[in-house]
Design brief:
411 residues; alpha+beta; ten-stranded antiparallel sheet; 18% helix; globular
Length: 411
């Protein structure tokens, strides 16, 4: 009887493990894969595109699958990621003369035929430096601060940074910036993914074939204040306004910190479907940044995000104004500040790097890894197996003792 119970429990544990492994596979694997091509300043024949010192950069990424994801990474005006999804028969058309005109009219960027399923944009609008004299690492409590529009930065030629293997490119500021001290740089690396996976670099964010990863870095900028910390303002633009839904900010919690030690949450923005469409997008990040280019647990510090702001928005010059009529879009801004109390402020390392994912569809969710599933299964199974084995041994001993007693009585 004991042996039968033990075998039944072993079968139960095996079934539980197989079920958990199935859930892990379902959570981690996304079968869709895209073919990616990258083009610099697409179809630009005007003289301005030949001038490599003006910083008029657009990297056009075309990710083809069941539909087309069009990404435009731009330093024209404020750095911007523009995303649009269309059927496979759609082509991008850029009127470069109109695009480079400061008075944009919303028609310089078109998708022909005009059948965009969904579109959105993320704009790096302002870099904020504040004097954290009380060491609170809270932008809301800062009384002395200054804001620098990303529109005023000068950018290097991005064409030399394009990597067609990793589907990435980097926007780097030039060494001399009138509004920044010293010879440091601000950079934004864009990476398009063609399949699902997890970033090899901390904080190891999940991505899908519908995701672009943005890595924002401040390197060797000379602080203005004795207790300087930095923050950024991002402007989120969601295509056409939805009659009932708005951009929302949420927090997703996890029980597993295997990939980012000590971090049990993921912050998210959800951009709603446009009009009656089912399509939507998201922004996703972990509240952590890094004070060294060699990211590890020891140089991880907090990245604090704040509530969405929907009024009195600062709207810099950006390529999104060449696609949208800004009176008919849903826009929100939010800030992310870098640092935690008693970390020595920015001046301690003169380096800060933070990662953000922008995706089309539904954000991926952290799943328990196969290793954690094995540990849990072993943790649940081994104690009971030990108890069953111990019970079986006790039962066998008792039966043996009773057998001896019966033998003595018979003799």
């Amino acid at each position: 009887m004991a042996i039968t119970s033990r075998l039944s429990y072993v079968h139960l544990v095996r079934t539980l493990f197989c079920f958990l492994a199935f859930l892990w596979i379902c959570g981690e694997v996304d079968g869709m894969e895209r073919r990616i091509s990258i083009e610099y300043n697409p179809n630009c024949t005007i003289a301005a595109c030949e001038n490599k010192t003006d910083g008029d950069n657009i990297v056009y990424v075309k990710a083809m699958g069941q539909d087309i994801l069009h990404y435009m990474w731009s330093s024209i005006g404020a750095p911007t990621l523009l995303l649009a999804t269309t059927p496979n028969n759609t082509k991008l058309h850029v009127d470069w003369q109109q695009l480079l005109n400061p008075q944009k009219d919303g028609n310089a960027i078109q998708f022909i035929p005009n059948n965009v399923n969904y579109s959105m944009a993320v704009v790096f609008s302002r870099l904020i430096e504040y004097d954290d004299v009380h060491d609170k690492a809270d932008l809301r409590k800062a009384t002395i601060k200054r804001s620098i529009s990303f529109e005023d930065f000068e950018w290097q030629d991005v064409n030399i940074t394009i990597n067609e293997t990793t589907h990435s490119a980097v926007l780097n500021t030039t060494l001399y910036q009138p509004d920044l001290q010293g010879n440091g740089t601000v950079s934004i690396q864009f990476t398009a993914h063609n399949q699902s996976g997890r970033s090899e670099m901390l904080p190891h964010l999940l991505y899908t074939s519908n995701t672009t990863q943005l890595d924002f870095t401040i390197d060797n900028i000379e602080p203005t204040y004795n207790c300087s910390r930095f923050a950024i303002e991002l402007l989120i633009v969601s295509g056409k306004k939805h009659s009932k839904l708005n951009i929302t900010k949420t927090v997703a919690k996890s029980i597993d910190d295997e990939y980012t030690p000590g971090m049990f949450r993921v912050d998210e923005l959800h951009m709603p479907p446009q009009s009656t469409s089912k399509y939507k997008s998201y922004a996703q990040w972990k509240p952590v940044c890094y004070s060294d280019s060699a990211r590890d647990f020891d140089n991880a510090i907090e990245a604090n995000s704040y509530n969405l702001n929907k009024s009195n928005l600062y709207i810099p010059n950006s390529i999104f104004l060449s696609l949208y009529d800004k009176s008919n879009v849903d826009m929100s801004a939010f800030n992310v500040s870098f640092g935690k109390p008693k970390d020595g402020f920015y001046v301690k390392t003169n380096y800060t790097s933070w990662t953000l994912n922008i995706g089309y569809g539904t954000p991926p969710e952290d799943q328990l890894s196969l290793l954690v599933i094995i540990v849990i299964s072993a943790g649940l199974g081994l104690p009971v197996l030990i108890i069953l084995a111990g019970g079986s041994i006790v039962c066998l001993r008792n039966r043996r003792e009773k057998y001896k007693e019966l033998t003595l009585v018979v003799n």
